[in-house]
Write a structure and sequence with these properties.
About 70% of the residues lie in helices and about 0% in strands. The chain has 6 helices and no strands. Helix 2 packs parallel to helix 6 and helix 3 crosses helix 4. The protein is globular, with a radius of gyration of 15 Å.
């Protein structure tokens, strides 16, 4: 399938929005679990969003990029959904990625 750049960009943007919505609905999945299994997490997505904004001259703070991914201020999400990492999760992260 061949698509023009505009269509490809629109499709990719829709997929990104769908991924973000999925992650927002799966608050049971901790960032450390995502890092251990996939090598990225919600924070990575928000960092990538900010990096692209910066590269394209779009003003975006780290807090704004995190809120775009989490759907709420990061500290609010952490307080409501983030549990303490288990020793097993921390060991797996250290082994798989050398830390986040």
């Amino acid at each position: 399938m061949t698509t023009d750049d505009k269509t490809r960009t629109e499709l990719e943007a829709a997929v990104f929005r769908r991924l973000v919505e999925h992650l927002r609905s799966r608050t049971d999945v901790q960032n450390i679990d995502l890092m251990n299994l996939a090598g990225f997490c919600r924070n990575c997505l928000s960092n990538w969003l900010k990096e692209e904004a910066d590269a394209n001259g779009v003003a975006m703070t780290k807090d704004a990029s995190r809120e775009a991914v989490y759907g709420m201020p990061y500290e609010t999400w952490k307080a409501a959904h983030q549990g303490a990492a288990t020793p097993e999760q921390l060991a797996a992260m250290k082994k798989s990625s050398g830390g986040h």
